[in-house]
Amino acid sequence: MTSSTADPEVVGRLAAHRTPYLVGVRHHSPALAGVLPALLDAAEPDVVLVELPEELGEWLPHLGDPALTAPVALSGAHRDGSGLAFYPFADFSPELAAIRWARRAGVPVRPCDLPLAYRDGYRAAGGGASPLADALRRTVTGRDDEDLWDRLVEAPAPGQDPESLRRTALMVGWALRADAAGSATGVDPHDLRREAWMRRVVAAQGDRRCAAVVGSFHAAALLGGPAGEFARVHGEVVTSLVPYGFDLLDERSGYPAGIRDPEWQQAVLGAGGDPAAVEAAAAAVIVRICARIRELGHPAGPGEAREALRLAVDLARLRGLPAPGRGEVVEAVQTVLTHAEPWGRGRVVARAAGDVLVGHRTGVLAPGTPRSGLAPAVEALVEELGLPGPGAREAVALRLDPLRSPLDARRELTLRRLTVLGVPYGEPTATTGVGGADALTTRWTVTWTPATAATLPVAGRWGPTVELAALGTLRARRSGREQGEGHTPAAVLADLADAAVCGLPDLVGDLLGDVATVLPGAGTLDESLTALDLVDRLRAGHLPGVPAGVLDAHPTLSRELETAAVAQVAGLAGATDPADARALVELGLRHDAHGSGLRLAAALRALADDGTPLIAGAAGAVRVLLGLASAGELGERMASWLDNATGPDRRTVLRDGLTGVLAAASPLLEAPETLDPLLDRVEALSDKDFLDRLPALRGAFTSIGPGARARVLAVVEQRTGDRVDVPRAVDPEQLAGWLAAERTALAALDAHGLTPSTQDFKTDRPALRTSTVDEAVELPAGLRWRLVLGRRGDRPQGGARYAAALDELYGRERGEGAAGGDLGADLSDPFPDVREWSDELVALFGERVREEVLAAAVEGGRFEAALELDPGAVRPSVDLLRNVLSLAGGLSESALATLRPLVARLVRELADQLATRVRPALRGLLLPTPTRRPTGRLDLPRTLRANLATARRGQDGRVAVVPARPVFRSRGRRANDWRLVLVVDVSGSMEASTVWAALTASVFAGVPSLSTHFLAFSTEVVDLTDRVSDPLSLLLEVRVGGGTHIAGALRHARSLVTVPERTMVVLVSDFEEGGPVAALLAQVRELVASGVTALGCASLDDTGTARYSTSIAGALVDAGMPVAALSPSELARWVGEKVRG
Amino acid sequence: MSSAARQVEPAEDAFAEELAFLAAHDDGPRPPGWRLTPRAAVTFVTGSGGDTLALPSGVTVPGVPARLAIGPKFVGERALVERAVVTLAGERGLLLVGEPGTAKSMLSELLAAAVSGDSQLVVQGTAGTTEDQLRYGWNYALLLAEGPSPRALVPSPVMTAMRTGGVVRVEEVTRCLPEVQDALVSILSDRRLAVPELSGTDGATVHAAPGFTVIATANLRDRGVSEMSAALKRRFNFEAVGPIGDLAREIALVRRQAVTALERVNAPFALDDVVLEALVTAFRDLRAGVSVEGWSVERPSTVMSTAEAVSVATSLGLADAYFPGDRDPLSLLPGHLLGVVRKDDPSDAARLLGYWDGAVRRRAETGARTWRRLWELRDVLDG
């Protein structure tokens, strides 16, 4: 059949055909379902044929049962789960209408489609030129994504007589078929085979009058065509009839053979083809959408409902339709209600429209329908796999090796799928692979409990086999996100992991697509790296049931994720967590394979220059790894940190910077010359200088874990030629040499009258006295390295006290090899308590170093150390305050009482310092001032005074002033009732930003023209406004920890807004939102839309470098909330500017 | 039409013939105050799709041809235009929102010309727009000399449109201060404007004549500058106008406008098609956040509007005209792109680098000559 055939003639032939009488339908069509009884009444067939595979015929009596409530779903598949044929039925399905009619009329119904057992090919993905359909589409459409059937058959249907509707449907089907036949691939061979079977069934009816209710695409094929050869290619076919729901029937749910907005279709069916009734249905739907929007907390009144209905009806009229169709209703709702905000209000409207148009109807099977679906399928499956079934009561422990044994692979998939379905059956036990790698075998504890049997029928709603049901749940989760709040990176990754372990390659493919769209926009660096790991596992084929080929459809995914991760790198500038440094290094190593790229290079350069010492170090190391900088350059930089580490601040820089560099320790050591300058310096330093820096050095080297440290040690050994890692086995000869040298030196000093005071030291340890003579190096290189690199308990002779003092702090091992027992347990005497330790520290390192070590100890979790700090003597710094405060939660009340003076002093001094800086920015008001700009408020007295020169006496004697220069009043703003809401993220650790925010809030609280609110939030929001003037109690109230839910905090902040124009909301956070980003953006838009002045602070501290999620910050900026890293005085300046207007 | 030469003709003058033709062509019922039927208004904006329309038999209008093909003026979905026309037919306010450079203003001008035959009642919204421009002002000399009188009253375009039953356009409504915008609320809901100064006289209230309505445009990127109040939003129907969907159409548009701009200074336009395509492709990729090939691209916060592409094309053309043979235009392209992208946010420059790393590099690897050259020019960006 070609497109040259004149269509009126073809359609005439189709309509006039009597064996069979043709009703061309679409699987869901309220228009045809409505007229089908009338058509069949008129045709009076002896038998009705419906387009269903032969095997499903057994269900037709149950399907036609008057006690059955639609929607229900009929399905059939081969025993192995392949070749699924799936037919959801609703009241508006023409086939169901035909089956019901036949039951009423007592006419037999036969399935006429190719049996599943005979099917060996499936429709190839279509697509190609469609000239006829395009021509039809042009006549009716304005929209780009038009559904031809909807426009030509459904929308014009109201008011049409049944016969002309049948003709239209046949015509559309014929046009689509002619296009398919004319395309390069022709009609799909699978369709041709099915049609040949249908002709055979028609022929088998003999001379009985028969009516065929088939897809309108196939109608033309029943006019005649070649007979086919059919051979059975499959064995048993499993069929089932299960209740279904409108939420699954909706096309967007991801289930096959659905239709958009079933509740609307149901309403159209109910209207029975009367245009006025369809219009009334549209009115009802629109009113319910508005009501739902109001329930969701957004305005949508009767006025808007009226306008939406008016628009829908007028659009239908403009397009020549008898009544508004689905398209018109949706367009009208969008135009009137969404306010062109796809994220904020648009989401709300979409959700409301989804609730109303999709609906929640569920089906019920007629009593007496045989049991089918998931529960019997699972019982058969576990029996086949040798897993405990309904008979077994005992728990079975299994160890599965899915990559080696196909049976284990199937068991693994079944257990995973049941877990995803929420069926309590198998419990996984954690396993770790060799060397921390991914485990390739799994352990399970499996029991069949009554709960298993009870939950299976519930889960059966999702599909008739365990694979389909798991697929269904995961798809429903996905589409729920799509229609609700939107994807979050965490949810997409979790689903991807689930789909991957459940062996659902199609879904994995879709989710990989989601990952590619969601993560680049909203993912953090960690999430991007997690996704990359998962992709690597998929590529390696470590997941049974998911072939590595699933990645073929996403050839650029890895690169895109890497690109996304690179985009996040700029947000690391303020990071202080070694995990961030390691993530940066990991990202750098990933790029090693294919060159760095311009952006990463630029970002790394910026980080190395401006980042915190930790990140600068890590960035420097990555630059060396990627060949962007020379190893020598980095080495010199590290050496300079060591040289400059003269004060406590600089020593922190040394520790953090070195920690950053060492995050890349393992790969860096392949080019040991990087470390040379540092090693040289360490060996060349004077004893005193070395000992000053020792805590910082040791702190840095501890961060990398014993494994990597051992490798550094190897490098050092090579240099010095000593073995320095033998515990307690320093060569006695050498030690004797050291002591001798020391004695000589001391003697020399004595001779010159330079004997230092020895009262600090016990006389039996003369060798350890700190030298006052710079040139004299008392601790040899090997010993120094032992002190820096040694393991806990590794106490070099001659340096035992130093080592023990530092072990107290750094002894706890972290990282690779930490758990290994290759070194004996700690065998030396630990310090009895902190006080003694602190004394020892003074003796060994001096007062200044002691404070640093204690502060570091506090940071490392040695809470008691804080109690040793002298409130009067400490140098107030936010870092110290932060460390002390992070303990507040873990201390007893009495300990807290000791701590309070310290905190009080720190807070007082810091707040005073801050107030001095901040106050000037907050002074002054602005009153209305005269202006020549025409503002509409004429200042009459001034105008008169300014224009006296132009006063003229008119002829009637009256004086007229000609106001050549009118004067106006500008808008004055009252500045004394602004409200400032500080919304502070306390989800992470006690960040410096939190402390600064509390201090700043206390300063703001003292400004009379501002009322300041303080909200601390993690996943919960705590309003600390009543404490805001007292930073001490405010800070002691803050409890850190928990997740991040910024949207929730902003929702609470919105409730504090009374006069939006005079309210500022300042959000202090790292923007790593745990909830859906769309919800966050909606909150921000709401805030901004109501007129509130909003500001995001990526950090609020003295440095102005921040660690935050750049992608979410970018989205917030788009939503109208500027984001910046500010210092408190900059924030004050900003507030001042806003208040003054 | 007018004796003095104009840079740009208003729509009702530029398409006077088509408007007169369509008025005669479709004599169906019209909403009160309309020059055309809604269907004819849609045809005027979207064109007749290449078909030649004929006047109904027996109808002749002097100066109007019997048959005419209506040219397409707005490149976009027809359904959008249909919704806009139906909105106006209901005398409801229409708000066109979209990124800058998506021809919102052109669409509003065409609609106003089609509906009321006059697109020149315009209020241009700025931060300095006062209520006078939306309500009414005074001739202050007369006001002081004579007191309030209808003679001293200076009507705004809005007031004029209310009196004549026409369409008034408010451009960039979100740039007006919120309290100024709110002047529109009562006008749109009550359909009348009170002049309290003239109370007790006939001029105390100005009633809107049938046909009066408002088309406003707003810029998505101005969100947060002066957001509209919810009360005002509820009185408008919203239509989002998107960027041009088709690469070839956008290239043609950029070429056409760049040629016009260069003609004005009598410079010939000699820009290579290849350069133009690279330029427009880069703009589209960065605007959409996804490349032509479907690779994801990180979007800069700057607007990558067609209008900006035109200005870059013009600059390239000018460089070629005034400094011929100096450097090839392609080598200037990265610098120009950087200039467009690096406006407000310094990290946008990093995003452009990301674009070079991703799309440009991959295209260069597939061997496209233009893109290979652009990849070689990458050092320009990393300054």
Automatic annotation (TrEMBL), chain B:
It holds the Pfam family AAA_5. This is AAA family ATPase. It comes from the Bacteria. PANTHER family: MAGNESIUM-CHELATASE SUBUNIT CHLD, MOXR FAMILY PROTEIN. GO terms for molecular function: ATP binding; ATP hydrolysis activity. Residues 90-246 form the AAA+ ATPase domain. InterPro entries: AAA+_ATPase, ATPase_dyneun-rel_AAA, CbbQ/NirQ/NorQ/GpvN, P-loop_NTPase. SUPFAM superfamilies: P-loop containing nucleoside triphosphate hydrolases.
